[in-house]
Amino acid sequence: MISILLGAAIGLVVTLLGTPVFRRFLIKQNYGQFIRQDGPTSHLTKRGTPTMGGVVIILAATLGYLGGNLLTGKMPDASGLLVLYLIVGLGLIGFLDDYIKISRQRSLGLNAIGKIIGQAFVGISWAWLALQFPNENLRRPASTQISVVRDTGLDLAQWGLLLGVILFIVWANFLITAWSNAVNITDGLDGLATGASMFVFAGYTIITLWQSNQSCQYLAEPGLNCYEVRDPRDLAIMCAALAGACVGFLWWNASPAQIFMGDTGSLALGGALAGISILTRTEFLAVILGGLFVIIVMSDVIQIGYFKLSGGKRVFLMAPLHHHFELKGWGEVTIVIRFWLIAALCVALAVALFYAEWLATV
User: Fold this and answer.
1) With the CA atoms of 200, 203, 209 and 212 taken in that order, what torsion angle do they form, in degrees rounded to the nearest 10?
2) Confidence class of residue 217 from pLDDT cuts 50, 70 and 90?
3) Are the C-beta atoms of residues 91 and 54 closer than 8 Å to each other?
4) pLDDT tens digit string along 28-47?
5) CB-CB contact of 143 with 156 (8 Å)
6) Peptide bond into 256 cis (omega under 30)
């Protein structure tokens, strides 16, 4: 438990104290946000606000995770290092995207092909690595089974090991792309994605801590309801470090934002959510846990689909959903707080369902 608290504390302190230092560096370099011209006009006042704050979030999560392990005499495990690889890998792609936007003073960064190649390399290599590294109990970080709250009987390898591995890589890449883009789309108002991510990773800290206490590897007499997760305690430290990093960054990112996380942060946080959902065997529970991200992405999908099918008509005044409410006259702070409440309710529901499933199997 001490290692988890240390991870959260280090993550919080690093972003709380490190963000203003990094912000001054960005201002000195004139690295400010370029605002899209087709967005709400109220956002034009945000032009020039320092971006790429996700660099501090990634640094804080890394130091929190490593510190939580090493300061308690524990070496990092494969699962946490895999999540860290996903965070840094996608964060690097986001950083390149942000840097191109800033250096060329435009709202478009990496071209589609470059971003797809980068995400594919990180996603495919991560998925393959997640099926390696068996521990002394022959448990691996990920499995080829589809999971809800734990692994189900639906195994992608039932038609053959090679096909199962290929299908898992495709499935994992879908989740990584979907969640990283979901957080990226949500990051449209001051503090919105940061606050929502804070709730999600706090929820996952509770889930991974419970999995650690009810692990099939640690219990003297494991029952049918124990969890097969390879490194639940290691994942709990990572989740706590991410939650702490989001809390500290939110101090500077809340309205009026003094710094934006940029694609550097949003892609990294989305990737972390995808990786943790796979390694904790909660792939479909994550849909509820990250319910706000799902709602906002679906608003975009509905808007685009209806626009094409209806010949130019729209469901929302503007997509994604938070911009719709902006154009309806809601204040930015009002939208963000109400969306945070939705995010918190989604997390609470997911954690309740997770615990209810455990009770049902006792």
Assistant:
1) -70
2) confident
3) yes
4) 887 765 555 555 545 544 56
5) no
6) yes
